[in-house]
Amino acid sequence: EYVSGGELFQLLEQFAVFSEMDAFLLFHQLCNAIAYLHAKGIAHRDLKLENILLDKKHNIKLIDFGLSKYGEAAKKMRTLCGTKYYLAPEIVRGEAYSIQCDVWSLGVILFTMCCGFLPFDHDNEVTLMKAISMGLFKMPS
User: Which of the listed CATH numbers 2.60.120.1440, 1.10.10.10, 3.40.50.970, 1.10.510.10 matches domain 8-134?
Assistant: First the structure.
């Protein structure tokens, strides 16, 4: 299926930040999509702005299910995978995690849509992983 609206990442680059209403409308769709996946026992595990496409009416389409897990395999995972800026703390710490890792990524996406920058964005990977693990980020004023 051709999706003419491009990536959510590209749209955010164009506008810098989304209005509360635009962020709400897009995020609501995204939450519904993830709720559907989770109800089917599917963990996406690589939610990020680049994996959310938009059609011409700004309806979202999730892509890249290459890291997803299904059923029993999605109940207790240990693989370090996903895009580092969106990783949940338990993944960074090497702990077992479940389908809820997608919920953390949703929070990172919402923060980025509303603030125009990632909550965890360090050049040094060790510093980045420590910040994620400890939940250390700055709120915009």
Answer: 1.10.510.10
Spot the catalytic one: 22, 46, 102, 121.
46
List residues forming the annotated binding site for ATP.
50-51, 64
Annotated binding site: 50-51, 64
The H-or-E segment that residue 41 falls in is none
What is d(CA 138, CA 132) in angstroms, rounded to the nearest whole number?
12
Q: Are strands 42-43 and 60-62 parallel, antiparallel or unpaired?
A: unpaired
- Write out the chain's pLDDT in tens, 141 residues: 778 889 999 999 999 999 999 999 999 999 999 999 999 999 999 999 999 999 999 999 999 999 999 988 778 899 999 999 999 999 999 999 999 999 999 999 999 999 999 999 999 999 999 999 999 998 887
Q: Does the pTM exceed 0.85?
A: yes
Active site residue 123: no
